[in-house]
Amino acid sequence: MGNGHDTHGGHEPSTDHDHHHDDIDALGVSVVTVSSTRSLDDDPSGDAIATAITETGHELVQRELVPDDHDTIQSIVGRLSKREDTDTVITTGGTGVSPDDVTVEAVEPLFAKTLPGFGELFRRRSIDDIGTRVVGTRAVAGIVAGVPVFCLPGSEQAVELGVEELVLPEAPHLAGLARDDASDEPSDASEPDEAAK
């Protein structure tokens, strides 16, 4: 994996270190469990995410449990993404194909940019565990308000795979880049017009 970045954009191996100069060493991570049947006291998937975060030296900033409701999910993910202390948001649950599974529909409209490689790689890695049932897995990721947001399935096995093998290894780099990108954008779209007056 160390040389994976060297093949993009003509980077030579000697520049790989510079390519990661914006990495965030200790992430502030907010976690959202989407479930209408669980509570924070009975949330093994949320527990698995929280454990993985703290065991790798990152900080669990906020943990929420919300029902399978489109507007509630969209509101909480949008709010957490704008917190000063949050560098990454991870959701678990609501990514399947049942009528109640609305996490993807709620979060995708918030994405300023999508990260299609996350869902592709998550499904590829999941094939060994669940076989062809992977076609029903709609894990997605994108950037919301300069913060990477990862939407994972609700199973404990799925979140362990997604968080330990994909999210935490890449989130420090993605969060650093996304933060830089967000800082380049005007905080208020009306500001350029105001300055012109």
Written overview of the protein:
The protein has 197 residues and is of the alpha/beta class. It has a single domain (27-182), classed as Molybdenum Cofactor Biosythetic Enzyme, Chain A (3-Layer(aba) Sandwich), CATH 3.40.980. Helices cover 42% and strands 17% of the residues. The protein has helices spanning 16-19, 44-55, 70-81, 103-107, 116-130, 156-184, 191-196; strands at residues 28-34, 59-66, 88-92, 113-114, 140-144, 147-152. Strands 2-1-3-6-5-4 form a six-stranded mixed β-sheet, sandwiched between helices. Strand 1 (28-34), helix 2 (44-55) and strand 2 (59-66) form a beta-alpha-beta unit. The protein is globular and about 40 Å long. The chain starts with 15 loop residues before the first helix and ends with a helix.
Quick tags:
alpha/beta, disordered C terminus, single chain, 7 helices, six-stranded mixed sheet, 6 strands, 197 residues, Molybdenum Cofactor Biosythetic Enzyme, Chain A
What is shown here, in short?
This protein is of the alpha/beta class and 197 residues long.
- The count of DSSP E runs of length 2 or more, i.e. the number of strands, is 6
Roughly how many Å apart are the termini?
Answer: 51 Å
H/E order of the elements?
HEHEHEHEHEEHH
Determine the structural class based on helices, strands and strand pairing: alpha/beta
Q: Strand arrangement, largest sheet? A: 2-1-3-6-5-4
Percent range of helical residues: 40-55%
Class in CATH?
Alpha Beta
The total of helices stands at 7
Q: How confident is the prediction overall: mean pLDDT?
A: 86
Query: Main β-sheet, in a few words?
Result: 6 strands, mixed
Characterize the overall form.
globular
| CATH topology-level fold name | Molybdenum Cofactor Biosythetic Enzyme, Chain A
User: In the residues, how many domains can be counted?
Assistant: 1
Q: What's the Cα radius of gyration?
A: 17 Å
**Percentage of residues in strands:** 15-25%
CATH superfamily: MoaB/Mog-like domain
Low-confidence runs of at least 5 consecutive residues: 1-18, 185-197
Which CATH architecture would you pick?
3-Layer(aba) Sandwich
